[in-house]
Design brief:
Elements (H helix, E strand, L loop, with lengths): L14 H16 L11 H6 L9 E6 L5 H15 L5 E7 L4 H13 L3 H4 L8 H17 L2 E4 L5 H19 L5 E7 L12 H18 L2 E8 L7 H5 L14 H7 L2 E6 L8 E2 L4 E2 L1 E2 L2 E14 L6 E8 L4 E4 L18
Parallel strand pairs: 1-5, 1-6, 2-3, 2-4, 4-5
Antiparallel strand pairs: 6-10, 7-8, 9-10, 10-11, 11-12
Helix pairs in contact: 3-4, 4-6, 7-8, 8-10
Length: about 350
């Protein structure tokens, strides 16, 4: 082997050390000292380890208009609401829209007003409504430790931003167990290095996230796109082909290799389907036919079962995706659904 003046060996340790670590982790979880961050969606919490665990990467993919950005926007605040004893901040690489637009969505979510109504100059936005909007902004500014990065950067710039931010917040809070939730909306808007293709940049991005989750206490929630494969007529007309598959995600190899969880949010109503999949799931809410259904497919679950479908309802005009409450009689069976990769 050739001599190299910059020799460096990687750190290694005996299996007993990893054994001690996992037993300590199990013990802390059983005693309630360590737990996942619960989301406001109970079905998702049950499908995972009680929510989102630290040091994981979750990719949320979907067609445009399927609610993926609204889910990320919701998580920015609801993770605080559902985990008041956890000490963490959110760093949101908000490459798709300005931070002020994201806050506008949060006001819409909390006041059940459309963004159009909030930005209107007509009677929809009277003094009382403006005051309510101002109260929401004041409340979320005090309650939520959320920071936005609006300007796209390279993968390397994102890495240094994350590490600097995490150390800054950990030092300020004087908490060695401080956590950082990192949102990236979305993967294809990350700035490329000269000569890199979109796929090469995607590989670079997921490699960076895999490195960071081993270096600091963090989690990644990443928004990604579906390609046009799912819109093909043969997919829409064949119920066995309706459900999303791994190949439907842009750069699926990099996404699946790097992610601990892969969730696809899908709204079959957008494809003019009459029924959805081999289970003939409803495309609109049976209790409110004008309201589209949204289905969450977990295609990858690092520590649990994949192939789970959760039924949600589209309240995207208020930037909400809420769990669907099944009728007490004639409930639909919606689990164990997508094994057809």
């Amino acid at each position: 082997m050739e001599e190299n003046s910059s020799k460096r060996t990687l750190t290694y340790s005996h299996i007993r050390n990893a054994g001690k670590e996992v037993l300590e982790y199990i013990n802390q979880r059983r005693k309630g000292l360590v737990h996942s961050l619960a989301t406001r969606w109970e079905k998702f919490n049950r499908a995972t380890m009680g929510g989102l665990d630290w040091n994981i990467i979750m990719t949320i993919a979907g067609m445009s208009g399927s609610g993926k950005s609204s889910i990320a926007n919701d998580l920015e605040t609801s993770l605080f609401d559902n985990n008041p004893d956890e000490n963490f901040s959110v760093l949101s690489f908000n490459f798709e829209m300005l931070a002020m637009r994201q806050v506008g969505r949060k006001i819409s979510h909390k006041l059940y007003k459309t963004v159009g109504q909030l930005y209107s100059s007509n009677e929809d936005l009277n003094d009382e409504m403006y005051q309510r909007a101002e109260n929401v902004v004041n409340s979320i500014s005090r309650k939520y430790s959320i920071y936005y990065v609006d300007i796209p950067g390279t993968v390397e710039e994102m890495y240094y931003t994350i590490m600097h931010f995490h150390e800054m917040r950990k030092t300020k809070t004087q908490d060695e167990e401080y956590g950082t939730v990192i949102l990236i909306d979305h993967t294809l808007l990350t700035k490329h290095k000269a000569g890199d293709s979109e796929r090469e940049n995607l590989v670079r991005l997921y490699r960076m996230m895999m490195l960071v989750k081993k270096e600091i206490k963090c989690m990644f929630i990443v928004i990604s796109q579906l390609n046009r494969e799912i819109e093909k007529s043969e997919r829409m007309t064949n119920p066995m082909q309706n459900y999303p598959m791994k190949k439907d995600i842009f750069g699926s190899d990099a996404v699946f290799h790097g992610s601990d969880y892969v969730l696809i949010t899908h709204k079959p109503y957008m494809l003019n389907m009459q029924a959805y999949g081999p289970h003939h799931l409803p495309v609109t809410n049976p209790q409110k036919p004008t309201q589209p259904m949204i289905y969450w497919h977990i295609l990858k679950n690092r520590d649990g079962e994949s192939g789970i479908v959760m039924s949600m309802v589209d309240i995207l005009k208020y930037n909400r995706v809420d769990e669907y409450e099944m009728p007490k009689e004639g409930q639909l069976e919606i689990t164990d659904s997508n094994k057809n990769e």
